[in-house]
């Protein structure tokens, strides 16, 4: 379960307070804590206008972060499954959330400003995002945004577990019951590769138009990746990360 962080909200008539927890924000807080960084919530009203969610103490002055949960619409999912959006991800509805997140960060330059997108689908960066050279153009008017980072939970041992399962039973012809028995047996015998064990990793995509780049030595966990647009704008290059 996520640690609970109270955000007091008042209903329309001001008679009741409702406690709200943003799971995406809590997941990013967990990532930050697991990598040994300190963070502070930025409460509404601490600065005139809209404010970001967090300030992470990873460099002088900190990095200001706005967290959004990636939610594909049914139309997005259908088009992604058909491969209709390869090379043109800006047609995805979630780009509106990116624009909104950028607004939350405006006014916090010259500090590095980061949009964190929490991913809960298999259609994630960088598979389709790096196919689109227009991504840089999408952030051209958001020079205060240093980068967009995609946070995901993934199972580092799933491939190993699947290979063990394929040896244990004939996946093509095994009944659901036989598959279940084999799955449970492997889980007991090899708890270190259980597919339900998940870790957090961050894909950071630099904004080529940023006035203040995100330092490359911060928010750099052992499984994280950093991508940057090439100088000629024709491809995305991995700066660091598992290959």
Written account of the structure:
This protein is of the alpha/beta class and 243 residues long. It is elongated, with a radius of gyration of 20 Å. It has two domains: 18-155 and 198-240, no CATH class; 157-196. The strands form two sheets. Strands 3-4-5-6-7-8-9-10 form an eight-stranded mixed β-sheet. A two-stranded antiparallel sheet has the order 1-2. 25% of the residues lie in helices and 22% in strands. α5 crosses α6. The protein has six helices and ten strands.
The counted number of beta strands is 10
Structural class: alpha/beta
**How many helices does DSSP assign?**
6
Oligomer: single chain
Q: Quick one: biggest sheet? A: 8 strands, mixed
Q: How much of the residues is beta strand, in percent? A: 15-25%
Q: What order do the strands of the largest sheet run in, or round the barrel if closed?
A: 3-4-5-6-7-8-9-10
Bulk shape: elongated
| Mean pLDDT value | 76
Radius of gyration: 20 Å
Outline the low-pLDDT stretches.
1-19, 130-134
